[in-house]
Design goal:
With 103 residues, this protein is mainly beta. The protein is built from no helices and eleven strands. The protein has a six-stranded mixed beta sheet with strand order 9-3-4-5-11-10, with no helix packed on it. Strands 6-7-8 form a three-stranded antiparallel beta sheet, with no helix packed on it. A hairpin with a 6-residue loop joins strand 7 and strand 8.
């Protein structure tokens, strides 16, 4: 290290490795919806690309795809999942590749 004579501060050169974002199975995340189709929807949480199948949605949304507006709507019409909205989800499985992570 290097000690400054006047202040007594010390400077050190340090190298380290860090994992910035590491998702786990069963972890709950907030994600932004990027696209919607009749099979489910895609969303992103940081670098993580996520697909939510219609079979993993709540029961009142499984048959609620509206093709005219490209959104999933609950039976009572209160919940809408469309491009640009934010959803909270639980990760069911992960696939890690050298350049990207998908769930």
């Amino acid at each position: 290290g290097l000690v400054e004579y006047e202040t007594g501060n010390a400077s050190f050169i340090v190298t380290y490795g860090a994992v910035i974002f590491r998702p786990f199975d069963k972890e709950v995340l907030d994600a932004a919806v990027t696209s919607v189709n009749q099979l489910g929807f895609f969303c992103k949480a940081g670098p993580l690309q996520i697909f939510v199948s219609r079979h993993n949605m709540p029961g009142d949304m499984r048959e609620g795809f509206n093709a005219a507006t490209d959104m999933w709507v609950s039976q009572d019409g209160v919940v809408e999942v469309k491009r640009g909205c934010v959803v909270r989800l639980r990760i069911m499985g992960l696939a890690m590749e050298a350049a990207k992570i998908t769930a």
